[in-house]
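Ticket #334: bound-state structure for zinc ion.
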Amino acid sequence: MKISDNVRMVPVPEDQPMRPTSTNIYIIGQRGGQTLTIDSGEAIDKFRWMLRGYLAAIDHSEIGVAAITHHHFDHSGNLKHVREHLKAEIAVPENGVKLLKRQLPKDNEGVKTYVDGDTIDLDGGVRVQVMTSPGHSVDSLCYYIEEEGILFTGDTILGNTTSVVGDVNSYMASLRRLLELPNVKVLCPGHGPLIRDTDDAKARDRLEMYVAHRQMREDQILEQLQDGEPKTSWQIMENIYGDSIDKRLRRAADGNVQAHLKSLQKSGVVRASRGQKKRPNPATVATNKAKDKANRKIIQKGKRLDKAQRAKILAQQENPPTDVWKKPPTYQLR
Ligand SMILES: [Zn+2]
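RESOLUTION: The complex was predicted; output attached.
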């Protein structure tokens, strides 16, 4: 999908609620010029195929630089693949390197890092600014093309929902910083549809809405604690959300409540008891591990059989159907 002459969106459809509607890859650069990708999806075929398809549509079979918005695997899973098959130089947040571990090529070959204030200059005068925007994750980055008013937000801002927050204080600071950007017309989120200026609403309204939403959540949490009764984050989450959310998002919602509680604790408004962790039973841990291992073996075997079956069907195409005919019919002129 074309966002501007220089920017294309590759929305890869998703069916899980943690990645609402799509996971998005962005391709930046002019037709025939150097390309930058922002995020490259999870390490599975559908992302690779869609990325290749969109690159082909702008006459590209390679990527200049493959950058990411943060280390989470739905954004960074294909880094090794694009390095190996699309010859991309890889660019990751400086403080994300240690979090990426196995997602990066051996010895970090072909990997460079971005810090706040870096710029990426592409052919045709396309300039992309790099901004750190911690909060969703510690290493979150946004990318910004000021000239065109296009802001790539990763999971800091999503297309149709609010996001998961790891650190509320830094998240709020990041949102406020984005609000100060001089020219914002389109927000390009890591998941879900674009947020564009329309006649009724401005893209930047979404940033304000996010700030207001976090404030509202904090107020709701404080209200839950008004009665003086100690509560777990899960109880607070259930009281606030009730049945209004997809059950599969309850842990994510609980995580956000915890992030708020941590911030309130830091500012001295809330105090917490220590809690007590369960000690896992070593026998159960060992049994579960063995079960997982056995299942993985079965899956591997299934994959091998599937591959062999496909190869067999293809090989059959090369040879006469001796499995069908003892003696095939013959033909001659009357
Ligand atoms: Zn994500």
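RESOLUTION NOTES: The domain at 2-219 is CATH 3.60.15.10 (Metallo-beta-lactamase; Chain A).
TICKET STATUS: resolved
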